[in-house]
Specification:
286 residues; Helix Hairpins; Four Helix Bundle (Hemerythrin (Met), subunit A); two-stranded antiparallel sheet; 7 helices; 2 strands; elongated
């Protein structure tokens, strides 16, 4: 319904359905990773998340194309997207913080250095190093080898940097009314996102089956998959969002002045690209 010049959306079940879907997916994933069961719950949750996203996107697109949104709604969307990206920034900051803590404090303490070096009494033969190939607890096996940053990780870095460029070209084309340019360069961006995910899948296979780099390979394996895995999830989501934007561009949605959905997708994608640069430097290189 409309109240004055400000659009008030009708009651929607999507938020609570989204919470239930994400909750089911995460609970199932947690049980699956810890106990090796309940993979079915994780799969159902993932399917539910996709259905909720599709339905919610459909409703918002219909509202936008019906001309229900005004400048106030545009500002609300911009603030909402800004705070969402800030929350994502804090999400990754926590994981980078964990990596920093392990490398800068925990490992040196276990090697007898620093204010809490007395913890070296736990494993007197331990020598701190990173990547940690030999965990202090002999019951935990570290990785046999680590991935070279100058092969698949470098290729993925070039792919994501290139995708930011192609997306910027598509955005500029849309702002100038060159819809074919926007369509073609956006399609290229989606393609680069798919290529990134494909290479990361190959990288994970090599790491898991040939290098012994698994979630059980000590703190290095845990932090590696925690950071790269969540980033890969964000790339997957970003690629799906850009694919929706591509369909909308093909169907004639957006104008040169009003296309915040496209802008929001671009903000998200550029953020994901920036996070990858940090990952490449601090997970693979240093």
């Amino acid at each position: 319904m409309s109240s004055g010049s400000y659009y008030v959306p009708a009651h929607s079940a999507w938020p609570i359905l989204g919470v239930l879907a994400v909750g089911s997916m995460m609970v199932g994933t947690g049980i699956w990773m810890v106990h090796g069961s309940a993979a079915w719950l994780s799969g159902i949750g993932l399917l539910a998340v996709m259905l909720v996203m599709a339905g919610w996107f459909r409703d918002v697109i219909h509202e936008s194309m019906s001309g229900l949104y005004d400048d106030q709604m545009d500002r609300s969307f911009r603030w909402g997207m800004g705070w969402f990206i800030f929350s994502e920034l804090m999400f990754f900051a926590a994981f980078f913080g964990a990596l920093f803590y392990v490398r800068t404090f925990a490992l040196p303490w276990l090697d007898g250095e620093g204010a809490k070096g007395v913890t070296a009494l736990l494993w007197p033969d331990f020598t701190a190093s990173w990547p940690l190939m030999n965990p202090p607890d002999a019951s935990i096996s570290g990785p046999k080898e680590v991935l070279s940053p100058w092969q698949l990780p470098l290729a993925n870095t070039l792919l994501l940097v290139s995708s930011s460029i192609t997306l910027t070209v598509a955005h500029e084309g849309l702002k100038m009314g060159y819809r074919r340019t926007a369509r073609n360069w956006l399609a290229g961006t989606v393609g680069l996102g798919v290529c990134f995910l494909t290479l990361q899948g190959i990288e994970y296979y090599e790491a898991w089956h040939h290098l012994g780099l698994t979630l059980q390979a000590g703190v290095y394996g845990g932090t590696f998959f925690l950071l790269t895995g969540f980033h890969g999830l964000h790339v997957t989501i970003g690629t799906l969002i850009l694919a929706v934007m591509l369909v909308r561009v093909i169907r004639g949605h957006f104008s040169t002045e009003h296309h915040f959905a496209f802008e929001a997708a671009a903000w998200y994608w550029h953020f994901v690209d920036a996070v990858w640069i940090g990952l490449f430097l601090f997970v693979y290189v240093f």
